[in-house]
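Subject: Sanity check before I submit

Could someone independently write out the structure tokens for this chain? I want to compare against mine line by line before I put it in a report. The sequence has 279 residues.
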Amino acid sequence: MAATADAHGVIGPRFFPATIATDDPFAADELALPTISIIRHRDDGSEVTETAYDVEYSKSILPGFALSFEEGYAQARAPGAPSVSGFDNLELTPVLEIARSGEHEFIVSLAFGWEIGGTGTSHAGADAASTFTPRIQFGKGFGDLPEPLSWLRPFALTGTAGYTVAGNGAPHTLEWGGAVEYSLLYLQNSVRDAGLGPELARITPVVEFSFASPLDRNGGATTGTINPGFIWSGQQVQIGAEAMLPLNRATGRNIGVVAQLHFYLDDIFPRSLGRPLFE
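---
Independent answer below. Compare away.
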């Protein structure tokens, strides 16, 4: 697996796979197509089964600065009611990396999500008003731990926290989450030879968590899911799958699933689509 300074998701000797349920801190050229999730959750007091199909394309504009475009299509079914389906609002998100440390396997970035009101299907729940979410995102590998703790070095942590302001008068919300990762590739290459084959070493067990906490206007309890799963990362593509465990009864009582096929465009097209527009 490539480990150059400007490769996707690489900080020093650490490779961070693109996470599925939460935003990673990298400004890169990549395409998630598709991301498919199925979960039953509560909506206005009733259990709704929702199947969602999402696509996200991220294009680097300058080194360390990218713009992502995300669109989704969802189908919701409630007992005794006809299914409702339609497109989500288009979301644009610029991402700016503001700090990197190869020695400490650390990165911080700023992002600003803009869900463009009126671009989705209104009868399926897409709002006519826009929503704005400034975010801070980070990634930290633990390869700088001392030798007695070398068995912990394959661990890494990513996180994101954002403040959501909806134009429709909905509660202001803290959107927060992250991922705990254990890189078998890092274990094999940078800690000790564990005897893993070349394909097995590309697996990263991961636990993601994605929560929303209303802050005012009687917004209710925190909701979200905890997602254990795995990500297999090749040179140009990754495949991931996670279970979706509801945080509490306010979220629902049923386990969902999410899977994603993800392409590293900066490795697939390093001299064209995978390069920043301006360098």
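---
OP: Matches mine. For the report I'm noting this point. The domain at 10-268 is CATH 2.40.160.40 (Porin).
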